[in-house]
Amino acid sequence: MSYLQIIIIVVGVIIGVVLTYFIVKQLIKKKNGGDDPDKPKTIFKEIKGLSGSGYCYGDKNTFPSFTLKNDIANETDCQQLCLKDDNCLAVSYDSTGKNCILYEQSGGTTPESAEWESSYAKFFPSYASPYHDCQTGTDDGKTIPVAMTKDGCRVAFPDVCKGPVSGVSCWKKYKNRENYTKYTVKVGKEDSSKCQIVLSNPFLYTNELIETENTFYWWLLDLINKATKYVTLCNAYVTLGKYQSDDSDDVESAVHVAILNALKRGVQVTIIATQQEQIECQNSVFNQPGYLPYQKATTPDGRPLLDRVLWNGFFHDKIYISENKAYIGGQNMSGSSSIDFGISIDSSCPIHADILSRTIYMYYNGTTPLTFNYTADNPWIADDGTKYFIAVSPVWPLCPTTGSGYPKVPCPFQNPPVGPFTKGYPPTSGGNVSYEYNQTLNLINNAKKFIKLTNYELSTMGNIYNGESSTLLDALIARAQAGVKVEFWVSNSPFQDSVYGGENALCMFGRCNKGKEYLKQIKNLQNFTLNFWYQNPGTTEFSECHPLHSKIFFSDWGLLVSSSNFTPDYFGSTQDTGFCAIYNGYAPDWISVGMESIFDLLKSKSTITYKDTTFTCKNDKPNFQTTDFQGKPMCTSGFCKGTCMTCGNLTTNSCNTKYC
Predict the structure, then answer these.
(1) Which domains does the chain have, with CATH numbers?
(2) Which 3 state secondary structure label does DSSP give 168?
(3) pLDDT tens digits, one per residue of 224-279
(4) E strands within 411-536?
(5) Is omega for the bond preceding 400 within 30 degrees of 0, making it cis?
């Protein structure tokens, strides 16, 4: 057979396959009533109701307007009306057979929920916060505002907000998503460590937040739903779990119901939080009517079935644990829509017991020494030789102070790899733990090929009481100069840009002369890439890019996934907990592949388009805007006090007078 004949046969086969594809496609299209099978059909999902009949409600922080169609009250006709209306988000009809109601988005934004909100969710409903400015529609097209009752961060809906009182059926509309591929988290092969990554991806469709494996809300619901003995939620502010809708895709309500069902099964649920952070909201969530009976019920050892401990000081840990598994990472229990990252540790992994010890220490307010079974000098070693242990940031001031109360600088932060957790605060000292700072410095100094970091903050400066430590940043610069590829992603969102009380580390850092010198030096380094994550242009305090909140320290030598930010405060005086790994020559597959998931996400969202507007999320220049979105100065003398005091006491004449 000649080459020409072979080519003719191959071409013929290809043409046959293509023709067959289009014929089958048309047959399917005809069977589906003309719909293109390559495009997902717009579908309706019934809101079954978690506590009875479902009802429709609005997108984000809004309650929708009504469009009433009289004398049409059957499922098919109502849904067809909604399909023809692009603004229709959901549809319902009542049992009287008189009304078909189309729900559309309308006003009513929530100023209280500014930081963590985003309008990026592409279909109804959203998951982020309770609804305000509830309105009821009338058949003449007018809207009537209805007074809302507010309890902390929860909203009590009057009956009129729930549509027809009796016999309601409601379907929410899943809009047609062209060229859409279901999102999956990239995970590596599990090994004897029984650990896996957990990614928080706020760009997902609402229902995917609780359906997509290895994402945080899916993981959290799995933790609660499978627990038979205990669930402990340890976070500075536990405000997730507000019952705010009857929609089973709503994250807040789904977490609420999961906790309630766990309590009904006799699972002890313990919340460890702080007294200072969002306490009004914490109280309103903790004291929801469904929870109250379980606060009075007790376990065999006399503890409340639903228990809560408010820490006397501040801590920054994010630990969620049951008898089955545990989470360490950056995700808060606040319903936030941030980009985040954590590690899931199965209870069969020996370091699970050390994580439990950390929560027990927190529960008893640090009245007993904290001691881990596995530490940097005595790690647990997996089958592949990888060393694992838990590390913490100790609780004592980073720097000795001068007679005036300000820290002596520069302040060398040098600790042995292992030592006590506290020195006199809380009163009980002693114990045996590893330190996050040492792990971070080691994975930087021992890196040969690459170092990758993500963080919410970047500064060599702590607050005015904790001084300065540039050791970590100097180490990063030194490795870049030695040929190691350094990649650092840091959040720099517009709403962060205030310096009141020194709350924005990067803002202070970039406005002090020493910080400016560092940023200039980094920019000139060939092997050091510093990406500033914020929406550009930023037109409101909401960010379509979402805040970058993950705290990852990753190199070809080791790993730290933590709740600590890249500032001296977090390594020296703010309680934090991190997951540590030291490789046996190479990173385990579950780590190397898992890390790709977070960095691939950042790269894929470096530029996004929303409502025909393109935003840049990855920027090579920092965002230090000096006014708010109404044009008012953000850097008044009061706001600048923190910057001036910090800069002025770190380096002579370093405070930038332009801002003060």
Answers:
(1) 43-174 (no CATH), 195-236+315-643 (3.30.870.10)
(2) coil
(3) 999 999 999 999 989 998 876 656 677 888 899 999 999 999 999 999 999 877 88
(4) 418-419, 433-435, 450-455, 485-491, 528-536
(5) no
